[in-house]
């Protein structure tokens, strides 16, 4: 199987990496206690046992979760995967240098104050391993979706004592159906079969191909041209969503039959750093919300065929979504006059200058330019700071390197749940020196308290309604400018099968070749 992509993966280490592209890749080489059901399942958003025999057994007070590992599971070294390895892998999330990926487990598990992971602080006492196949988690507070939290990359087991420092930057210990055979950063990743993976014990992955080849650093337009031409090994190739400029060319019968259009659960947004002057002033942030021309950003994204304008934080596909518009303008084209009025009230009648971080990607830079032009009408001068795609999320997630604003996006981490949307983006108690997801650096006591209250609710329908109300309260503080929800359009090679994306992302675990002898 061939995969063509422009940007390098953030990290092979699942305690460090945590974005849509690398998460899909992780599914090939890593397993967790629990995982998302495959994309071809009856309910592709369901959580299913992976290394565990079943979903977790929770105590009456909701604070203790217990799991039993399947028998016979092994690493690619042939060593058995034990409960101690699961505990060790998860505890790496507390390391201040390594644990910059998914924050859910370290936010939920009741670790001792000051705990800094296994390399610095030793074992984590709040994860118990009474025998090699039993693991028990003690939580800070009830969290009904803890099964789903364990499905995150940070839930990956590793042999006790491995992975210190940069050990897993170029090589890893695999628990999934494939292992890394060759890795040339920014150029190539080749995967080979893990001989110790047992298909009978893995219901989430089919692992059809004998090998995978990820070719990295190819321009997006070149990828699209190769997939359209469909010659040689490219008949066995897949890539991420096509370029917006390519969409019009996919209307021929030959290409239309190959095209897969997937609705996205991901919000594209402009994050405003509330710690930077003058963005620490609510009226200034509200002015920016009024000023942005979302229709021009939509055009830069690829138009209505490719995206839908968003005015709230939670996309329509995410539980708790409420349809409202707190900063309206005619045709979503921005209201420069209202923005100027608010800036004048804030003491900036002549506007101000700010820096916007943008990923080095053709579409993202066009979106940045559309925002730049819209804010100029309100008197705000925007300088674009273009950052390499492979380091973009790490850069903007480091507060010391973060500028006034960042253009980025967010996807729910499981089941289109608002509990994986609002808390990581707005809980001020989890602003970290590295791997920070709260780009607004919003730390509001009322928001934090409401996140705790809703997160502990066992009535998920009531919780969803509460998340929708919290969406409104947060937008009243104007820490973000919601922009749009982008669809994803894939063009698999003619010999590729299994490209199903019910919620936006493809599932490498079920993809294969129609005829393995071709290409």
Output the CATH homologous superfamily of the domain at 267-486: Dipeptide-binding Protein, Domain 3
Q: Can you tell me the overall shape? A: globular
Count of DSSP strands: 21
Strand order of the largest sheet: 14-18-13-17-15-16
End-to-end separation in angstroms reads: 10 Å
CATH architecture of the domain at 267-486: Roll
Radius of gyration: 23 Å
Structural class: alpha+beta
Helix count, DSSP H or I runs of 4 or more residues: 15
Largest sheet: 6 strands, mixed
Percent of residues in beta strands?
15-25%
What is the typical, i.e. mean, pLDDT?
94
CATH topology of the domain at 267-486: Dipeptide-binding Protein, domain 3
Overall helicity: 25-40%
Low-confidence stretches: none
CATH class of the domain at 267-486: Alpha Beta
